[in-house]
Amino acid sequence: MKQIVNTCAAIQPVNAELLPAIQRRLDVLTKPPGSLGRLEEIAIRLGLIQNTTAPHAVRKQVVIMAGDHGVTEEGVSAYPAAVTPQMVANFCAGGAAINVLARHAGAEVLVVDMGVAVPITSPGVLMRKVAPGARNFCRGEAMSAEQAEQAVQHGLQLAHELAANGVDLLAGGEMGIGNTTSAAALTALALNMDADKLDILVGRGTGVDDAALRNKCRVVRTAVQRHSGASSAEPRGVARGLAWLRAVGGFEIAGLTGLILGAAEKRIPFVLDGYIVTAAALVAAEMAPSIREYLLAAHCSAEPGHKLALRQLELKPLLDWDLRLGEGSGAALVLPLVEAATRILAEMATFESAGVSGKI
Amino acid sequence: MKQIVNTCAAIQPVNAELLPAIQRRLDVLTKPPGSLGRLEEIAIRLGLIQNTTAPHAVRKQVVIMAGDHGVTEEGVSAYPAAVTPQMVANFCAGGAAINVLARHAGAEVLVVDMGVAVPITSPGVLMRKVAPGARNFCRGEAMSAEQAEQAVQHGLQLAHELAANGVDLLAGGEMGIGNTTSAAALTALALNMDADKLDILVGRGTGVDDAALRNKCRVVRTAVQRHSGASSAEPRGVARGLAWLRAVGGFEIAGLTGLILGAAEKRIPFVLDGYIVTAAALVAAEMAPSIREYLLAAHCSAEPGHKLALRQLELKPLLDWDLRLGEGSGAALVLPLVEAATRILAEMATFESAGVSGKI
Fold it and tell me: Of residues A327, A339, A347, A352, which has the active-site annotation?
């Protein structure tokens, strides 16, 4: 746990002292001040994170973490758990949506087996399997305390390695049949919501019908009732975040929590994808409250709980496109927009250099 | 006028018969049906417009039309009219936001002088100058009937030339100090709004202060009161659209109206930028009611009237980023997202080809 605590202690607020310098640069470019709206906001955010007036987003990395969920035995997903390893193979073959979108954005894709239930044989997968699937958290804890720590540490370590390789921008994605159920339960714990109000956190995931949705609500309520007492008994911070993961998390979610923390420690902006990655960020925010300053929310998904999770993190999504695929697809989709913000700052002419008149 | 009437008559609803085939293709790809939300919507829209189940967005063209506005003598802009030709020079030198964003999207930029007040000497500008600036429409008509027709025809003709050159996707942009005032007046006429309710159509443009905003509202009200009777006396359709342009338009706006119509005639999807380009689309919709099916709205700008104009066209913007620069910057920004939709359709594996299980 010491490594996690040290990382969290190292995550300080971004360097707000740079704000006036970046703002000055934006305001001499040939456009009315502020007229590029959120594009300027992104440029500023990246500069403050990367601690430079010239932020860059050339080396873009998507990390997809995969893991299985014992809670699928409660009938919470429209797809069989076998899809998790099948989709990992699809990622490796380059045929999934995330591959297409990452190629289009000029981003690399790395697939990590954090806890798929079956042995993964696809070439190119980074093996960080903590265990073959999380346990059914309706009946007990999803994982042990040691496993939760180990999964977070794998994520931290990977972020450090990617930072050493010169990655400018990280995007998180996930694959795990059943993981919107885990995300809903984690969000309920993080938002400290009453069990009888949880239904608004539960959506159709990959597309369950009405009866399965009611069952999924029941499963999340059961899990939260079972686990909220123990986790809220833990002291706030790293211990409580780990307790949430232990209770109702998944290995891919715990790995993403570590990845998000490690990225912030190395001042790499992290682009959140959908509900599951955002749940990992809620855990990271419990561990390191400044984490939200290092995050960009790619989109608000069709999962109803996602909006509440983003609100908790005070993040305004870049897109509202009813995406609900996961894999990091929404995050990859916005990478060209994020990169565009850096190019505006780097490549636009100034009023002076272009000989354009200022305001009357 | 005959050419314009013929083009408008040639613009039919998009080929909805292709919808089931495109939908089938989307639904065999390795993702839950519909899970890519608006990305799937865009793929379908492009397919229906291009009349193919394999739409493409490889050759992307941004057309920036420039023109000046006599109404600037009423003090409606925060910047002097001299900025119009200065920004044209900046576009030609590659230093404006639109250049950066188009380069980033892999799009070509073409700058057209539709009616800049001074001679344009920048290399590479397509010269289609109808007159050196529209007249002050507070005191009379912005242009003659012949000039309005000529400007629209230039736009039509250019769309036909770009279609012949194999352009897949068109994005419209504009430059013209004073043209948010013209856009507000056009929107008022197109929405048939009472003069005393017009203020919600008037925004700060490049950034006028409160006093100038009040003055801008007065200018738009005066113009609409002066011209609404005559234009609503024209029969609906092409004649009325031309009457609006004649009354309160600008040469760049009229050219964009023609460009939008010509693109639809050639089944080229057209990406709208902000308030001004959308005002041109409102005129096009008066001339050819099916036009909206050929349009994508890039964003909802910070100009308050833009939202109402988009609602009138029944278009849902892709971004809501408080952009208010114009030039086509918002349209260029979303081109990578639009292209991504085509790549999803073309490049993703199917459940069968990837060996992924379907729903339980």
Answer: A327
